[in-house]
Amino acid sequence: MAKILIIDDSPADIRFMTEALKSSGHTVVSLGDPMSAEVTVEAERPDLALLDVVMPQRNGYETLRALKRVPAAANMKVIFVSSKGSDTDVKWGLRQGAVDYLIKPYTPEQVTALLSRHL
Fold it and tell me: What PANTHER family does the record tag this protein with (predicted)?
């Protein structure tokens, strides 16, 4: 099974996403501070990251750009998770290097479908 990293500044969103992934059999690691993303990726070596876009200190786009400089993240897939769901937002997220874009609110079924598609 895969290792999934959740990066979100909202503890409620982390809990919801973790619950959605619980039955998938994947290992879940969560992070509430995007400034620690590089260190966490180096230590945990996740296969896929679910990355919130709107966060204080460093948004998801900035976090993804920082992760692209980390050798341990070279094969890691990133899915943006955001309440910003306009066509422009989705296109911009994909242009930044994400493999997919999940719009909040989402269902556990949407999360598992995304994982099936990308893992």
Answer: CHEY SUBFAMILY, STRESS RESPONSE REGULATOR PROTEIN 1
Confidence category of residue 75, pLDDT binned at 50, 70, 90? very high
Enumerate domains of the chain plus CATH numbers: 3-118 (3.40.50.2300)
CB contact at 8 A, 25 and 1: yes
Beta strands in the chain (DSSP E): 3-7, 27-31, 48-52, 77-82, 100-103
- Is this model's pTM higher than 0.90 or not? yes
Q: What is the pLDDT of residues 27-69, one digit of tens each?
A: 999 999 999 999 999 999 999 999 999 999 999 999 999 999 9
The beta-carbon contacts of 30-39 under 8 Å, at least 24 apart in sequence, are 30/5, 30/6, 31/5, 31/6, 31/7, 32/8, 33/9, 33/57, 34/7, 34/9, 34/58, 34/59, 34/60, 34/62, 34/63, 37/7, 37/63, 37/66, 37/67, 38/66, 38/67, 38/69, 38/70, 38/73
